[in-house]
Specification:
11 strands; 57% strand
Length: 115
């Protein structure tokens, strides 16, 4: 099994930055795809970014140019650097690990961006 624990959320003013971390434990492999999704109040969970084992990345249009996903396989950790945050970025951010059609999820970390 895989356990994912997010950290780094908090309250920040618009234009500020935060760095989220997700520590993975259990059966974790460097070939796993790691990603972030978010769920704003009253909305469905949506894709933010993912990173493949080879380092290829993909981002939602709404965060391109502002967010950067990275991974440290030696630490089994994936990061999400979030710059120029906007009030619309307010959400619970969830880390996920994808392997062979199975998705594992963390419990999330809350990011609140004030205007």
């Amino acid at each position: 099994q895989v356990q994912l624990v997010e950290s780094g959320g908090g309250l920040v003013q618009a234009g500020g930055s935060l760095r989220l971390s997700c520590a993975a434990s259990g059966s974790v492999f460097s070939t796993d795809i790691m990603g972030w999704s978010r769920q704003a109040p009253g909305k469905q969970r949506g894709f933010v970014a993912f990173i493949s084992s080879g380092g290829s990345t993909n981002y939602a249009n709404s965060v391109k140019g502002r967010f950067t996903i990275s991974r440290d396989d030696a630490k089994n950790t994936v990061y999400l650097q979030m710059n120029n945050l906007k009030p619309d970025d307010t959400a619970v951010y969830y880390c996920n690990l994808a392997r062979g059609g199975t998705n594992y999820w963390g419990k999330g970390t809350l990011v609140t961006v004030s205007s």
